[in-house]
Input
Amino acid sequence: MSDLKRTPLFPLYSAHEGARCIDFGGWELPVQFSGIQAEHDAVRLRAGLFDVSHMGEVFVSGRDAEAYLQKLTVNDVTRLADGTAQYSLMCYPDGGTVDDLLVYRLNAERFLLVLNAANREKDLEWLARHLEGDVTLDDQSDETALIALQGPQAGAILTKLAASPEQMSALKPFTFLAETEIAGVKLLLSRTGYTGEDGFELYAPAEQAGALWTRLLEAGEPEGLVPIGLGARDTLRFEAGLSLYGQELSDTISPLEAGLARWVKLDKGDFIGREALLRQKEQGVPRKLVGIEMLDRGIPRSHYPLYANGERIGEVTTGTRSPSLKRDLGLALVKAEHAELGTEIEIEIRGKRLKAVVITAPFYKRNRKETAK
Output
């Protein structure tokens, strides 16, 4: 795996006996440290630490930065104030998704975009292709480490190491401190995450990432903090109904089909993809993302085909046995006429068509570990 990219924290993985790495989009990353179920439970019940330094960080600066991002993204950038962030997406003219991302406003002329690692080069090319006015792009991905601290004990752990614990505690979801200090490291701290739990993301200089990671694990030991791999990261986001590019989103799946309409501001003015998305809204999306639960014994997996009355109606985007709920669940993209709650469908698993039913997603919400059908 020597040809794979590695994050600044890679040398620290070996300190954990159960660490096992895989090729994840060209990166050598840990799929687990101690086991997916144990790591999943740690984040739901206590706290977990994630190395997500493979993500891309691009600064957008200039007098026209806001107008530029307003044209490139589907959410309304003008609603951001300094120190706030928003979830958004970039679309192709036909409504397909370039990527989903976070947009941070540092000030009126400087923003930070956080991109999916697998899409970093493609996104940069897309951003550069549409540059206009007084706007510059500065890719700081290689110089930036990103550590996520997630779970109900995340705030208590971070308070021990924060230079300004009052400021940190006052952060609301999707707000951030552009410059603060944690464990002696100056960094950007945001109250964001990808697990369905409360938590924080720490953007730090790559060369200081190792010391920061070690100090966080030491400080969090009494609260049960453990490192978390990609396996549990996926089951956590899946239970919370959070999209993964390449599964719930792609260049052929629009944000509206993926159930992300609340982040698509069709009334904000022109942006790339608006006309196609507006047509989808007016005519009705042809496909919808739904939750499914197995009625027969079996586990739905990505790309398993779905049927109704002998007709193929879609496919599973993500599926597994839910670690929190102990139920065989999936997210699936189906023809809109088969998306009603309670609709029975069939999933082809190893050549057999097994019964399933459309249910409400997300399956898990913080402090409520059951799902309403």
